[in-house]
Amino acid sequence: MKKLLALFWLAAATAAMSVFAEPYCGVDKLPNLIKCLPAPPKPGSADFARDVARYEWGKEQRKDPERAALAKRDAIWSFSAVADAFSKPFGMEISQAKTPRIWKVFEDSLSTTDQMRVAPKAFYHRRRPFAYFNEEPLCPKEDGVWRDEGSYPSGHTMRSMVAALVFAEINPERADKIFVRAMQYGESRVIAGAHWQSDVDMTRLAAAIAYSRLQTIPTFRIDMDIAKREFAALAKTRPDSEGTIVTAIMTPTELLDHPALIALLGAVGALVLCFAVAGIYITLRNVRVLKILLHMEKLGYKRSPDGWWTMKRMNEILKAADSMPTLGSAKMDATRQKLREQSGSPVFGRLIAALALLFAAMVALMAIATGRAIVALALLPAAVVFLAFHHAIKHTDKSWRCKESERK
Fold first, then answer.
1. Looking only at Cα atoms, what is the longest distance across the chain?
2. Average of per-residue pLDDT across 206-221
C-alpha cells in the first residue's frame, strides 16, 4: 500500500511541476532506466558499505555552516531553484522573465527527463538513508515528504545534471563552472541524507542517457538553437574578472525575432506591395493609353500648342478608342487627362523597381546575417515586382520612342 501511495505522490508531483512546461515527448519515447541502469547495491555488499561510509561523510559535512546551507538550498524542489543555482556559474541570471528562450528549453528538458525516474523509483523502492537509519534528514521540510518514495535514482540529481548539460551547450565557455556546480548539487543530496552515493552516481549516468535522447528530438534542437541565439544577443561569451557576463547589443537575429519589428516589417511589406500593385497598374495603363494616342496620330490628329492632342474627327477617335480592349469611348477624356497627370510614369515605374530591388537586397542581407534560409523566400515577391516593373517600363519606353518617331 505504501508503495502505491508513494508512486501516486511521485506521479502527482511530477504532473504538478509540468503544468506550464511542455515535455518534448512522452515517457514511452524515453529510455527505460530499469533496463539501462544496474540495480542499486544490496545491504551487505561492498558497494552498500561505501554508501554507508558516504552517508557518514555527509553528516560530517553538515558541521560546515556554509556547506550545510548550500545543501538545504539544493533540497528545494522547483525549476526556479535549479535555475538560481546555475545562474552564477552560467554567468547571467536565468529566469522566465529575463531569459525566456533559455528558460523554455531548460524547463521543457527537465519536464521531459523527470518522467524517467518514476518507474525505477517504484520498481526498486529503495529506502532513503535517513529512513533506513531512522534519523532526521538535514532538511525535514523539503525531504520529509519523500520518506516513502524510492531513493533510486535521484530526482534532484537528474534535474541538476540535465540542466548542466543544457546550460553548458548554450554557454560552452562556462562549462567547467557549470559542471562543478552540478557535482555539488549531487553531493548535497548525500549530505542531506536524502540519497545514497550510488543513487547520485547512477543518476548522473541516467542524465547523460536522457540528454542523448533529447538531442534526437527536432523540437528540442529548434528550441536549443533559439536559446543559443538569445544568449548571444544578451551577453558576450567572455566573462569579466568578476565572472559576470557583460550585456551586449542585440544581434541581427534576435532583432529579427522581436515582435515589434516583425509587425513593422509586415506593415511595411504590405505598404510596398500596395504601391507595387498600384504602380504596375498605372504603368501598364499608360502603355495602353499611349497606343491609343499613337493610333489617333496615325488617323491625322495633331498635337495642340501645349503638347497635347487636338480632336477633329470625334467619331473616328471614339472608334479607335473602342477598338482597344480595355478602354472604351466613355473613358477617352479620362485617359487623356490621366496621361497629362502621369506623363512621368516611366520615372515612377523605375523608382518602384529600384525600391523593389533595394528591398530584395535587404532581405538577402537579413537571410545571411540570421542564417535563416526561409527569410530568402521573401526575395520571390520582390523579384516578381522588379521583373514586372522592368517589363512595364520597357514597353512604356518603347511606346514613348514610337510616339516620338511617329511625330517626326
1. 120
2. 96
